[in-house]
Amino acid sequence: MSPAAEESFKSFTKTRFILCEGEDDKGFLETIIKECRIPEFQVCHAAECNSEKTGGKDGFAKALPGFEATTGFSDVLKALLIVTDNDELVTSFRRIQQMLTNIKECECVAPETVKHIGKIAGKPLAVLMIPSAEDEGNLEALCLPEIHNKWPAAKKCVSAFMECTGADKWAKKGSVHKTRARSAVVGFHENDPYKGIGYLFRSGTLSTLNPCFHGVAQFLQNFDKLVGI
Amino acid sequence: MIESLRIENFRCFKVLELHGLKRINAIVGDNATGKTVLLEAIRIGLAGTPGIIPWISNSRGLLTVLIPNPTREQFESQWGDLFCEWNSSMPIFISVQDSQGRTAAVRIFYDLSKAVTPQSPLSGEAEPSRITPSTIIPLAFQRTHFSGEESTLYATVNPLGGQLLEPGPELGPSCAFFCNTMFGFPPENASWFSKLSIDKRDREVVETFRHHFDYVENLSTETLLPYGQGVIYADLPHLPKKIPVSLVSAGMNRLLSFILAVVTFGEGVVLIDEVENGIFYNQFFRLWETLVNLVHQHHTQLFVTTHSLECLRASVPLIKENPGDFCLLRTDRKGTDKQPQIQKFDGTQFGAALDNYAEIRSR
Questions:
Q1: ipTM of this complex
Q2: How far is B279 from chain A (nearest CA, A)?
Q3: Residue B70 sits in which domain range?
Q4: What is the domain count for chain B?
């Protein structure tokens, strides 16, 4: 067993659990929970929850079927939240919906509504689409206002860079947002220009108090009421 | 194959019901949450004989001596801890239902209508007058066989005060029980091996064993002194003489016991407490592979407890291959009264959680 596997998700330790796509999402979510004084959630990303270290939505499909038999599911966990990129409108949510339907004792979540409530082995389950249920994109798309706020000078350079590389014409909007955000923050860390967005939140470089994050903060604040726990 | 089980008033279980049991049932949980008791209940439910009780107590390290001329208190103290919270005013009830819908059950209770007062002390007592006959209320084992036939056996005393455990046929399929400290009883192994040898089925055991330990050339039963009563010897090419398997390795002997039991008790049930004991970690996958292959070939059902996540994880490829053959039973004490409970998970959930490197044992 690899050391990484030893450090991964072991059991449910808090009443609220978030399963997100990757390390950056985890960094952002843990920071917003702390900075916005949201009640505690245990946050894990997909690759932490399966032995193959598969991230993203494919990682959800591997992780979710094992949750019910995991220690703490029945007596500690009260509700589960999946936070996922809305990288392709409609189909992103449908993929989540399909994988939940495939899990025994998992009720199908409501399609494309704001709440997206379902159940996994009797536990309430919600799906939060990032940047929102209506907007295509990902965490980077959500973060752009805060990134521009932090590095305003980079904004027009990034636009020029995107234009001259042709990246602004990509069909995949998620990739456009990612490139835009990563280009804007690349000057931050000399030792490792690849440092992810999650690190920028954890280190306090980016703040989750920007109004662009209010929707997410509000959703998490109201989570208990929303899922009825 | 046992599909469901009901236990009432037995040791730590007031009431327990399990359904949907599988070919291979892995039992996990903290100490003192009822794992071994579950195995004992299955053993008693399949036997239904008074004689199985001292055997079970012995396997817990509690040597039962059936003293002659017991007082009622002494007699009942031998059985008292079988009853949940020593409440013998309620009967113990254990029933098992198999995949064909047949039920075997045993109801254990003190039968007042059969009270017996020995007429005279055992002969040969130096001072018989010192022994006061005591009225004994026999312990009844009211049994229903898989065939539907009913019978009752008693743990009682004879007119001379000698204790008597009435023998009778077991109720269900044959069953072997390995307690956590049992490293295989050499004469029993030898007897099983001899029987298979007579039936010309010993090669399967030898080849399966060699799959784990290829440096063992052959196995044979020998009866020469000093062991006399029959012991399985291993032929190791680097040694000038054969050597008892239990002297080569205790773990090897335990593994051989499991192989012999699963083959010998085909169509039956094998109960193994703490399956990982004595087995080196890199043998775990092959241990599961061997057990899974053998239980399929011989239609044996397995109930195994373990504390080892490493041992459980070794089973993942086999669970993924045939999730319908496995289930996980997790024991725990929950609620205000801390009563033991068992949660059951199907093979898909069990395998997926193990594959996630998640913790699946309680707490």
A1: 0.82
A2: 19
A3: 2-165
A4: 2
